[in-house]
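Thread: Newbie trying to understand structure tokens

Hi all, I'm a second-year student working on a class project, and my supervisor (Dr. K.) asked me to get a predicted structure for one chain before our next meeting. I've only ever worked with sequences, so writing a 3D structure as a token string is new to me. If someone could post the tokens and maybe explain what I'm looking at, I'd be very grateful. Here's the chain:
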Amino acid sequence: MRRVGIIATVSAVVVAGLVVALAVVWPGLDAQETPKYDTSVWALQTGDGRRYARVNTSIGELDTVRSISNPSEVAQGPDGAYLYSDSFTKLTKIDPAQPVNLDEETLRASDSTPSGTKDVATSGDFAAYLTDAGAVFAGRLSTGSSSLVDPDAATDNAPQYAADAIAVDARGRLYAYSKRDKQVLVYDIVTGKQLRRDDASAIDPATPLISAAGDTWVLVGADTGDVLVQGRAAEKIPVTGTAVVGAPSTSVGAVYVASASALVSVPVDGSSPRVEGGAEG
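---
Reply by user tm_fold:
Sure, no problem. This is what the structure looks like when written as tokens:
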């Protein structure tokens, strides 16, 4: 899953402008802003070239560029930046003092993600992994370790929990949608305990996306625009092609959905979705 960051401060707008400018000359760029006291952004090129770089936002220039074999995504934890590579199978912490070229031999020594990982969700130090079999693992970037999330493990003859979409917020709260169960699991990575499981049978998205605002989850059909906000009736929003959703937020009262036609905010306070940019329909 790819997520759309929601820019809330003037400084973030400046960073976004810089990253957009760099993307023009550095196609395939993916970026993560470092903490606000730092003036750098780590960017990843996954197009024709395969490199990662540090962007000095105070002067608007790349100050470090290194190569990486088969990059997937860059993630920012509280203690530094991390690189996922080899189709999300490897996790490497970037050494900000001495960034190195990361070839296949170097990456062999990096931490491995769970076998079969196809999607990753991160927020702060928390990370969750979704495998091609639907298994969900959760852990921390800083340790490189994760554990299987199986809320039914204590139930005799229960099948292993399987999900189709995941998201993580800054508190370490995991949201996982299961088409098989037609439910959304809310799980606390810190305590390793299930918080609740909510009915989500009102829609049946072929390509589900999950996010949250505060304590309320929002389920979206990426290709249909079907939307289900926890505790409310199903709705529909305009999408063209395949949509993406913003990462969960503990401070913004809406989830943002972006597609080729529009940026739509889906409030969790009971009000209707709003088109924030692009054309309706």
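A couple of things are worth pointing out once you decode it. Residues 1-31, 33-37 have pLDDT under 50 and may be disordered. The longest helix spans residues 10-25. Feel free to ask follow-ups in this thread.
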